[in-house]
Amino acid sequence: MANWFPVGTNRQDGWRLDIVSLLAVIGESSMEEHSQALTSSWTCMLPRIIPAPQALLKSARPSRMPQTSAAVVGVHNGTLFPTLNYFPNIIHPIEDFSSYSFKVYEIKHKNQNPDPPNTKSVEDGSKELSGSTSIDFGKIEDGPAALPRRRSTFRRLTQTLTGSPDKKKPRVPAQWFSPLNVLSVGSCLLTIGLLVWAALIKDGTACCALGTISLASSIVGYASWWSPVLSLRNFSSKVPAGDVVVRTREGAFILVRCNEEVARELYTGTEECRYYVGIQMYRVLVGLGTFLLMVSVVLLGNCNFTMQAAIGVSYIVLNGAFWIASLIPKGRFWDLSNYVWTDITPSDARNAHEKQGDTLEGKPSFTRTMWYAIRETKKTGWVKRMGAAPATPKWEEWLKLAELNASRGNRKWNAVEKREEIVGESDSIPQAKAAAHRDTAEEHAPAFEVPLDTTR
User: Fold this and answer.
1) pLDDT at residue 105 in the model
2) Where are the domains of the chain?
């Protein structure tokens, strides 16, 4: 049995860890998931070892945040979008909604005034910025007395490290103590400890390997450093409310009550990725990072046994930590404190996805959930715009009745039974006409068959 396993570390037939260089590039799937959130903070530039750094070596950078397939339509303005943006899907994750469920949310800016700013009148020639956004644009005053405020050095440094390249647009920064930021700082401290250990045991190859791979991560992190920028209204004209309805593929409806500024930032606008490095410089830095990564992989395979074991264990721990981070809700990664949202779903619509009786109205259905949404919006134009109901005369009749009862406040209208009465009739009439036509044809059919002329 003694000859079945390696013995010792310095013998030719002993334990060897040359495969430790492979551990440095394992875990690409986990890093691919975290790549955008990881590079949105200045901590991505810290020199450190990270699992699968090649996940950041991309030929092209994404121009916007990931999107989710869902129908998003404005209740009052009728704008339609086939996808849901990234940040509203963090506020109300649609994957958590059951089939035929219904929710109503109210989303405001943190410092929003009680009166909507887009409904204020402009009097005496004074002008006000439309929308009380969470970004401090400063007051616009007339005359030479309007002087910029003095800001502390710490505040200027904070805005430099966490600010957006476009200072005029609102943004959603990464949280200071997000799991990825903690991992970045922790891996940097771990790398420093490994360097000190390598220096103490006089392993120059390990020092060079850790130095090159740390430098590569800093260069690639700086090349990929970006900030999410939201859309902003540029005009102060009066506009309707920005309420939107989201419909999932599973038949769930989400009504969001908000003003046009919030709707533009979260739902109808584009979440852009503004990078701090141009595309040409990005390609140069990525090429340099790729070269350093290849050199570090070669050096890792030539370290002594002690450092190979230490570095291998470090990569295993970091891979597990990033995998655990993927299980944490996305809201822990992004600072959404500029927005305040509240669940204001009416009590008689909270259990839209559950059975409430043995009748047609008591069973969960797409029609019942859609009626709940119509009942709250008191409009059906968004239903047609979204394509939630078939474009037939019978469904048009049902939608008119639904809008009429919703506007009158008749919350106990039997929407499902009325749909069966109106729309179900449209299915039976063509069948009845076809049966009557067949009976008439058989009644007047000749008693003999006309032979076919096969000479033609």
Assistant:
1) 95
2) 15-114+154-345, 357-443
